[in-house]
Amino acid sequence: MYKTTKSAFTMIELILVIVILGIVASIGSQIIVQVYDGYITQRAVHRSSTKTELAALQLANRLTYSIPGTVIARKGSIFEAIEYSSEDNATLEWIGYDADGFEAITADTALGRRPIWSGYCDVDSSTKDSIITPASRLSKLDATISYLRPDGSTTSISDAALFFPLDIDIAHQVGYDETTIGTSAVEPISTISGDETITLDTKTTRTIKEHYKLAWTAYAIVPSNPHTMSGTTGIVHDLNLWYDYQPWDGESYSDGKSFTLIRNVSVFRFTGTGNTIRFKICQRENIGDGFTINTCKEKAVTR
After folding, report:
1. Is 262 helix (H, G, I), strand (E, B) or coil?
2. How many domains does the chain have?
3. CA–CA distance from 223 to each of 2, 8, 237, 292 (Å)?
4. SS3 state at 247
5. Residue closest to 214 by CA, chosen among 102, 93, 64
6. What domain range is 280 assigned to?
7. How many alpha carbons lie under 13 Å from residue 8 in its C-beta half-sphere?
8. pLDDT, mean of residues 226-232
9. Which of 13, 198, 249, 281 has the CA that lies 20 to 30 A from 270?
10. Is residue 27 part of a domain?
11. Cα–Cα distance for residue pair 140/198, rounded to 1 Å
12. Binning pLDDT at 50, 70 and 90, where does residue 13 land?
């Protein structure tokens, strides 16, 4: 009977294997932690970048239809033309013309294809309080405003106004100064008749040009809800978009409707030159353990 022997690990070899496995596990765990941290950071950067991009696009799209001379910067009751504004977290406010009505085309067997309002006008020879706007379909305008207004709103054609291409004095002509509402640059609409006649509110004097813009709402981007994020310093805000109010009727943005455009904004800054508006939005995102990241979007809008 023969005995066979088999070689086995020595104690030293076992210890070396355990040490090597410990080193590999330690390195592997560090790699896993680094990968996870990188994932958390990239996810936060992506989320913040997406939020700021969407907010900037919405703001840029609406500013595209702003009426020149009506864009202001506001701090409470104090406001100034956008050309002089560079202060962080001020309110951006403007009046936007009715792009949906202007770009809509209605078809009619007798009248053919027409926009709802054409932007051209002639003064009625019988009264200075009426204008004729050729190639319009004003009978569809009130319905269009009704479709666009928010639920529960009573906005209609009688809340709309015409804006003529003048050198607008924002304090006295647009209606931002509630003590002196609407002079020559703003013509509030009283009624419409048929498809081409607009009756304006009665005034002793008025200046009418051959081109006009029709508007039924102003807009405001208002920084609100100042707060700090957990474990960080510095104030952040929410940006709220206000709409469905008429400054030419003595209303302020708080008389309208609002929704939150983006939260936790660390920087909101804007300025303008001529027909160009430039703005910057920075948003802060929490990645845990008191750490945050910031992403910024900057856009320029030419009207």
Report:
1. strand
2. 2
3. 92, 74, 6, 20
4. helix
5. 102
6. 43-90+220-243+256-302
7. 4
8. 80
9. 249
10. no
11. 13
12. low
